[in-house]
Amino acid sequence: MKLKILQENLSDALHIASRFTSSRAQLPVLGNILFLAKNNKLSISATNLEMSILLNLGSQVEKEGEITIPARTITDLVTNLTPGTLVLEAEKEQLSILGEGTKAVLSGMNTSDFPSIPQNVGRAFATLPKSDILDALSKVLYAVSVDETRPVLTGVLIIFRNKEIIFVSTDGFRLSQKRVKVEEAWGKEEKVILPKNVLIELTRLVKDEKIKLEFKKEDKQVLFGFDNLLLMSRIIDGEFPDFERIIPKSSSYKINVDRDDLLRAVKLSSVFARDAGNVVRLKVTQEGIELNAESQLGGSGENKIEAKIEGEGKSEHMVIAFNYRFLEDFLNSLDSEDVLISLTDPNSPGVFTDPKDPNFLHLIMPVRIQS
């Protein structure tokens, strides 16, 4: 293998690929990056078996070939080389890099041990609009569980149904759902659960306005194609909870409140709530709502907010408690000026929505408290 490539392009690609490597001692090749020179381009691949990436870079290929090199070593080296043209040449299991005033030789590994990675998206199952997908992910990723004992909750459920894509996440204490309308229709409903880490990488990497998606069901993989880049993810096995069953169909209170006012009140209450299990009490009155919290170390805070109260229970006061961190995460994900809160009773989930976006819904389970 022999080729010429710009240091700037190679350095950027190596920094991205390095995020997809693994330091598993039993599989040292996963700590490497695969270089494949062919058809006047250099393909760089990396994988940790949960997610994989392939980047295609323009280069002048004089001799085709391939080699794998430890990710950290080559990334650190190329990053510190002088900008300009580099010459890469591989013989057997060694890679030499020639730059301005520098020559380095790195030891690699046999490419036969490197896991096979697809080189392109085959028949696209769907073409997804970038802006809508990024908006949807920003509204569901924060509600994904970190509890590895329930693997299905550590990812996002994506449903392809009729002319919409539904994104759902839950950690058992809260749930986010965002629907995205699309032009193409699916004859058969499809469901897939993808790891949070992969979707975070998708939001970081995508620049094209359209994202191509392919299912490889036999391999339990999903492929995303964009920007001369291929992002692959394993599908999480298991059955996602029946989330539609737990969403309340009716409510006793509908509260329309300014988002910034509510977020400010939540942050003020958190000063005391973080010493008391993160619990804040939300009291519904005829004039609006009150948020209060009491610290176990002494001290308390109360914040009153004007709000429009509707519903059959508006003539009665009600107190319900929530984890303030969940309220804060939801409010930070909103773009709107107002928030609509639907409540039934102190023991039922609170439903939080954007009055201007009927396709977004967030549900938070209450914290049980003594009256």
Structure write-up:
The protein has 371 residues and is of the alpha+beta class. It is 19% helix and 46% strand. The protein has seven helices and 23 strands. The chain has helices spanning 7-18, 71-79, 130-140, 196-205, 243-246, 259-273, 324-333, and strands at 2-6, 32-38, 41-47, 51-58, 60-63, 65-70, 85-91, 94-99, 102-107, 126-129, 155-170, 174-195, 210-216, 221-226, 229-234, 253-258, 279-284, 288-294, 300-310, 318-323, 338-343, 350-354, 357-364. A hairpin with a 4-residue loop joins strand 13 and strand 14. The termini are far apart. The relative contact order is 0.11. The model has no long low-confidence stretch (mean pLDDT 92).
Trace the largest sheet across and list its strands.
11-12-23-22-21-16-19-18-17-20
* Strand tally: 23
Estimate the strand proportion. Answer: over 45%
Contiguous uncertain segments of 5+ residues: none
N-end to C-end Cα span: 74 Å
Q: In which range does the helix fraction lie?
A: 10-25%
Describe the sheet with the most strands.
10 strands, antiparallel
Number of helices: 7
**Average of per-residue pLDDT values:** 92
Overall number of domains: 3
Subunit organisation of the chains? single chain
CATH domain class of the largest domain: Alpha Beta
Radius of gyration: 26 Å
Might you state the CATH topology name of the largest domain? Answer: DNA Polymerase III, Chain A, domain 2
CATH architecture of the largest domain: Roll
